Amino acid sequence: MKRFFLFIVFSFLGVMFVLFAQNNNVHPRIEKNGVEYYEYVVRQGEGLWSISQRFGISQADLHKNNPEINTSGGLKVGQKLVIPIKKNVEDSSLKKEESGVSYLTHVVERKQTLYAISKLYDVKIDDLISCNKLQGSEIKEGQSLLIPRKTVVVRESVKESDTITFIEYEVKRKETLFSISRQYGVDINDITQYNEIRESLPKGMILKIPQKRAIEKTLVDTLAIKEKEEPLQEKKVSSSPIKVGILLPFRLSDKKTDKFLDFYKGCLLALNNAKKRGVSSEILTYDTENSKETVFEILKDEKLKEVDLIIGPAYAEIIPLVSEFAVNNQIYTVIPFSSSVDDIYKNPYLIQVNPTQKMLMDLVVSDLVKKNRSKLFVLGKVSAAEKDKGRLFAENLEKELIKNHVPYESIDIETANIDSVLELTTNVSTLFLLASEDKNKVAPYIKILSARKPKNLEIIGFEKWGIDLFLGTTLPICYSSLFMDKKTLATDAYNSQFLSQFGTPVSSDIPRYDMLGFDIMQYMLRMLLIDRENPTNGFAIPVTDCVQSEFKFVQVENGGWVNQNFYIHKNVK
Q: pTM for this structure?
């Protein structure tokens, strides 16, 4: 079985944010030759990268102090490592001492996963498995789990200006710690620290909500926006490159995979542009061959466990394998093409670029009705298959119009009665939907309407019709999620760069996969610069230098992130 593996290192001066080391006082200490070390036991799914970030040291320091890593063929579960203690990290003006661990009790809800619970309470999956003596990650509805919560005693008094104020909040029916924490912008642990919570929240319970935390969160958000406004060249320099893994089915002999090669080229151009801004990166590229067996072997590669981000796979049947890997190794993973991502509802590490047809349709219908209430909607129903996108769109649009009390006309279209549609548009601006994405069925009506040249009528159409159908005719309104009709100096510059770099002309397809790869990679690099451990923290900050696709990611409750951006195209040429 062939596996395409390419390791490209962009070795240049890196521009990164400094990641803060976690508090590691819970690990046993030992002394060797007058030097203090933590003694750390390697856990399932951990790599050198994650351990180095946990302790705030470089991977080189790990190798230096643990030479057996090289001789034993890499890290193994249960292996003991010695971690040099960094004195400057431990010293602090505010001395703290861990005085023990207390526990909350959580009752597993229907379809809830261990990963969702770890996200909910901001605890590690391994800690949940350990303190509940679980054999794996499987849990059942109704099962009681202990949630570890650290208890910290502050020895030194804090300044009066740092005191915490509280709001008293009465719990409402079906509310959870998660929903309340989101409402007040505080962490769940900040709430549990000041309230005696043993089971799920009962209605009527009075909670003390600390306010200092909410102020701190606002400050962090403000700083993140300021960081976006500052030039990247002014950031602190880090020698640690951003690592990205790409999993796509290349199969170079198959012409059908040209779009994936185009996508990959766009990714490389984005990395090259980042290089010019001083961003250091490494990319690991794998050919998945659209084979579960191949992907299973790829996921065994220890190097892949150390990446900051994964892009891929392409097809829905491969996603569950990579999704499980992403959760176990806490790696954010971008699904660039497939709109069928079932794991998005339970895996907080998935980022879905292409929304489902239903989600996109609901968003577009709502937007059309909201922005065109003063216009007349005419639903031109064409005989179409049950799953025809046009037919489904007409049904959704009709429901939204009724819901919002917007008047409309519904007509069974035949060539003979197009005149009746034109009569309706005489004195009022009209949006006319031809409810089929089959261009052969709608072409006769487009031809007639084009010849009449109505002034007050716009046609709602679909991408699948093809632009060629409308050349020299009345052009439609259509919608899309992955491309905008954006002809600017930036796109001209991109096209020139693509031709110069690869020696081949750009694709004429819509959407262009090379541009999609460029936009996704550029977007995610910026997110990683804002917060490398959790790139989704940067989603709220707009990115305006995309050449084809912009993104608006919204989190599914207890799950991952879905792009809800879309475009309404008018008079596309």
A: 0.58
